[in-house]
Structures are given as C-alpha cells and as structure tokens.
Amino acid sequence: MNFSTDKWDEAHLYASNVFNLVDNSLAPSTKRTYNGALSKLDKFARSIGDPIDWTAGVSHNILLNFIGYLWEKSYASSTAQTYLSAVAYIQGLIGAPDITNSFLVSKAMKGYSNADKRQDSRQPISFNLLKSIIAKLPEVCSSIYEVMLFKAAFLLAWTALLRVSEYTARTQSAYSHCIQKPYVDTFDSHMTLFLESSKSNKDGVWLNVKASGLPEMCPVEAMKEYLLFRPEGYSDILFLHIDSGKPLTAPQVNHVLQLAIKGLVPSQLKFSSHSLRIGGASQMADSHLFTDQEIQEFGRWQSDAYQSYIRPLPPTGPVGGEPTVDLPNTLLLDY
User: Fold this and answer.
1) How far apart are CA 287 and CA 292, in angstroms?
2) 156, 209 in Cβ contact below 8 A?
3) Domains and their CATH numbers in the chain
4) CB atoms < 10 A from the CB of 37, how many?
5) Cβ-contact 103, 144 below 8 angstroms
6) How far apart, in whole angstroms, are the C-alpha atoms of residue 213 and residue 96?
7) What is the pTM for the complete model shown?
8) Which of 43, 168, 177, 195 is deepest in the core (most CB within 10 A)?
9) What is the pLDDT along the chain (335 residues), one digit of tens a residue?
C-alpha cells in the first residue's frame, strides 16, 4: 500500500487517526529538530533556485548539494546525519523514495564522517573519580540537604547511564522529561524508577537499579536518604531544592560538578554533567563484564552511537588506598 498523503482524503474514515498515530511516534524534541532541519533544507533549495515540491519529496540532486553545503559550512557530521534522518522521515511520510540510503548519499556521508576531525573532548568520570567528587560535596554545597541532593543525583545518573535531561530541568519551568517522585520506589536491594519519556523512548521505560553494597557509593541508599528530607507540597519532580521547591536544573548540576572536580584532575581535561553518563558506560566497558549489547540496552541507545561514549578512563588510582571496587556489585541495572 502506498502510504502517501495524496492517496488519502476525507472519504477515508480513519485516515486522520492514522496520521495522528504516526505524528505521535516522534518525541516533541525530535519533531522540533526535524522541523528545523527541513526548514533549513527548504531555505537552501530556494537559495540555489531549485525549490522543493513537498508533495513529491526531496530530489536526489538537492540532497547531495545540501550535504556539500553542510560540509562547506563546517557542520558536524552528526548534525548532517540528523538532517538526513529528517529527510528520510518526511520521504516516508509522503510515500516518496528514501534517497538517504542511495549509494552516493551513503558514500558522501561516510566520507563526511571520516573527514570530520572534531572530537567530543568531554572526559568520562570513573568510579574512583566519582567517589572523590562525592567526598568533596560538603566543601562545595551550601547545606547538608544540597549534599544529599547532588549525591543522589550523581550516583543515579552514573549508575543508570541517565541523560542529563532525564533527571534535571533545562530551566526552572522546562522539565517534561524529568523523573517523577511518584514513579520512584526504593527497597532493601534495589530501587525502581520510570522514565516517562526520553530522547530515544517516547513511551517511557522502567529501570531497576540494584544496591551496590557500598554505603557511601550506593545509589539506592543515597536515594533513600535524599527522599527522607525532600520537600513536599511542591512539584512531583524527583530532584527539588529545599528552600524554593524548584527543580534541579542541568546548569546547576554542571556548576556543582565543576566545583567538586576542581583539583582532582588536570585542569586541561574537560568534564561536564554528561561525563556521568559517559563515565558509567566507559566503566562498564572497562570492566569487561558486559557485552556491547548490554551496554547499549542499559544506556537506551537505539543504534551503535553508544560506541562514541566508550572512552579511556582518566588515570586515577583507587581513592584513599582502598581496593578497586567490585563492579558486579556497583553496576547492576535491569529492565
């Protein structure tokens, strides 16, 4: 069946339902990204005197020229690939051929990726470095409550390989993806939590994070301690400030992380809030206890993009002369 918009009209009773379902298959953030990509492509096509007929789809020639344009303007290969994903989506939506998989386009993108020398310089946070960061929280936080807040957030993000947007808000009012307290339950041996929606899973997913057996570095114990003092009567967002009841934001996580990590690593190394997710994945790979598929599933990556998160751990030895942590007890995450 040719699933093309010009083949459907009001005579088809359920056509609008189908298109609503297709539209709902994309997360809101993906819709915004795709709309921006297609708008840029449309503007480009007009600029070269070859406007796109959106009822027929994007031509092979326009797409190849657009790839060349993105390269000339120094767009990252990952950005170019996102634009191609938007084109593939709209082509499928209107029933046009998927030209993004043609020989020329595939080879052009392969060369684009090979020639794009930019590297994400953010470093992974290893278990031992995380332990040192948490030990410094009392020095950089303004209250005992803040120590509990950031300790619980850091340990959860590292262990569950959370994206920053899954446990923090971008601003005090934008927090659609934040974990909600009603969907967090703690037990003696584990805790369960529900990610209502995320970058790769609009329908949500339940996570089961097991206790580590290490009191100062256990995500379950840290969460229990935090929840005892978490303010009530404000929002259902999991991580809240006690004085205002406002949600924890991504910039705040990054700020406290930078304060705590100062003096623990060489200053030229770059760390950010995303280093927690990178570090958890890299520690899993470094332990050789997990398969590539398990790491991909734990981090909820839908493609082999997870490979770019696996990086050499910073050269830090065991903290305080203590033995190296037993990873089977600290990195346990089930679905």
Assistant:
1) 12
2) yes
3) 5-115 (1.10.150.130), 127-334 (1.10.443.10)
4) 21
5) no
6) 55
7) 0.65
8) 168
9) 233 444 445 446 676 777 778 777 777 777 888 888 899 999 999 999 999 999 899 999 999 999 999 888 878 787 888 899 999 999 988 889 999 999 999 999 988 888 875 566 788 999 999 999 999 999 999 999 999 999 999 999 999 999 998 999 876 555 557 899 999 999 999 999 998 866 666 678 899 999 988 888 999 999 999 999 999 888 899 999 998 899 999 999 999 999 999 999 888 788 999 999 999 999 998 888 888 888 888 888 877 777 778 888 876 543 333 333 334 334 444 43
CA distance 232 to 51: 55
β-sheet bridge partners, residue 207? 193
What is the radius of gyration, based on Cα positions, of the chain?
Answer: 23
How many other C-beta atoms lie within 10 A of the C-beta of residue 235? 15
Q: What is the 3-state secondary structure (H, E, C) of 77-107?
A: HHHHHHHHHHHHHHHHHHCCCCHHHCHHHHH
In the block, tokens 């259902």 appear at: 236
Cα–Cα distance between 156 and 153 in angstroms, integer?
Answer: 5
How far lies 249's CA from each of 112, 136, 160, 161, 273, in Å? 35, 20, 18, 17, 11
DSSP state of 248: P
Buried b / exposed e across 257-289, counting CB within 10 Å, b at 16+? beebbeebbeeeeebbbbbbbbbbbbbbbbeee
Under DSSP, the state recorded for 181 is: G
Place of tokens 């005892």: 228
